[in-house]
Amino acid sequence: MNKENYETYQLSDFILDESFQAWVQGKHDPFWDHFLDEYPEKNNVFKEARLMVEALSVSEQKLSVTEKENYLAAIYLKAEQREKSRDKSPYLLPYWKYAASLTALILLSGLVYYFFLSTSFQYYETAYQETQRFQLADGTEVVLNANSTLKVLPDLQDKDVREVWLDGEAFFKVNQLMQEGDSSTFVVHTPNLDVQVLGTHFNVKSRDGNTRVMLEEGSVKVANVNTRENLLMSPGEAIELNEREGKIKKELAKESKELAWQHNYFIFENESLADVAAEIYQYYGIQVRFEEAEMRDYIFTAEVSRENLPLLQTLIEEAFDMRIKREGNAMIFQKTNQDSF
What we know:
The protein is α+β, with helices and mostly antiparallel strands.
């Protein structure tokens, strides 16, 4: 597949791409890891396709053949009704042609499973440079950072286990609920880590295969979804799991730094320019390119409002005698003095 094809990729193209399916299901693939760096304009459709492929994986485990057939029959009827009313589903109609093979049947049943659930899940999404504060049906308060998606189980307040799925970053103040005399558990799912709590305050950041949890109040249990390694956290602690390393690391957290995004600030403390570049992309959707690879390891410290990108740019330029050039939706970091470092 060449670059031009990816620029025209639609939802169906992602879902039917075998390498994309393998990546969503856990196979390491640097191309898909950095796909949005190259094609930031595909952010929404890319995330939607990822959720649908994840649903496919779930359906293969949970649906019997009879259930798949029943779902198919039901979805055909529903789709026909929509077509007649000229309110076609953007997801399902293009896939009917794949229903002739067993593999396609499994794929389609996954889409059907996703379709039925997606009609009842509630979604919260933020764009670049946007932060949202809202309350879930169970009373839990959420602050959702920019470029993030939270999927919430329907009728959350009535569940013994209250489940949400996070792609991005959010802060939770979980409302403690009782169901038939027992406390209802609240679980935040990320691609590689589950965070289980009863009632507490904590921050979860899940991006690019890396998940970090910071506990402000109460206690939580985190579990690696691949190895089932788990551990308990105490207030003031942070844990991090990188999918490439595969092990959970625990450390003391600096709350003001971890939660600076809620006050619309960046706080960088002895961090590499590669990490700074990741923050710029995650908040502004601007890709950073380095003229020389070694520049990624330069160490940077600063505190600056997220509303003042020009100031951040100036601080970086002055710290490293560097020039930052804008090209479309990218920032190019260039050296101006080869002997400065």
